[in-house]
Design a protein that fits this description.
3-stranded antiparallel beta sheet; 11% strand; mainly alpha; 6 helices
């Protein structure tokens, strides 16, 4: 893993300005405080489910080699959970939330390349096509939920492990 250390300067909009050496060089702005505040506020309104969803989806993306950044996961989860019917329910609804978010991801427009980050409005770029892997995860999550309804515990656990890997506690 390689890290690039860059200087950053606080700017008048309460964000940060930093150099970008790519494509001939430029200056970019970011406002992580505004992004953190937006995520924290919405997560508090959703019984912390926004943060739980973001963590679950990062595990999925890592396990299934999905070309999606953590920032894009957070951005899409932020949009998804705003009107989600189970947004403030307990962990007992996390299986439905994961399944429904996979469906939401799978239905994204593959031609869209940029989204706006919550709080800052910064551009969040697509890393690759993630919709097909989201559809596959949606189907496996649906099967896991059906196995749960049918009291097939081992099969339910295996389906979730297909989605999240061995980190899924089962």
């Amino acid at each position: 893993m390689t890290f690039e250390v860059l200087p950053a300067f606080e700017n008048s909009s309460n964000g940060w300005t930093y150099p970008n050496a790519n494509n001939g060089g430029s200056w970019k702005d970011c406002n992580p405080r505004a992004e953190i505040a937006a995520i924290d506020t919405r997560s508090a309104l959703t019984n912390k489910n926004l943060k739980y969803l973001g963590r679950m989806m990062r595990v999925w993306a890592r396990h299934c080699a999905v070309p999606i950044s953590g920032m894009l996961i957070d951005t899409l989860a932020y949009q998804f959970i705003e009107n989600y019917q189970y947004r403030d329910k307990s962990f007992l609804y996390h299986d439905f939330m994961a399944r429904d978010f996979f469906d939401y991801l799978a239905k994204q427009n593959q031609n869209q390349t940029v989204w706006r980050a919550p709080g800052s409005g910064s551009h969040v770029h697509r890393k690759g096509v993630f919709e097909h892997k989201a559809r596959s995860a949606y189907l496996r999550a649906s099967e896991a939920i059906q196995y749960n309804d049918d009291n097939h515990e081992w099969s339910r656990r295996q389906k979730w492990r297909d989605v999240f890997g061995s980190l899924y506690p089962g």
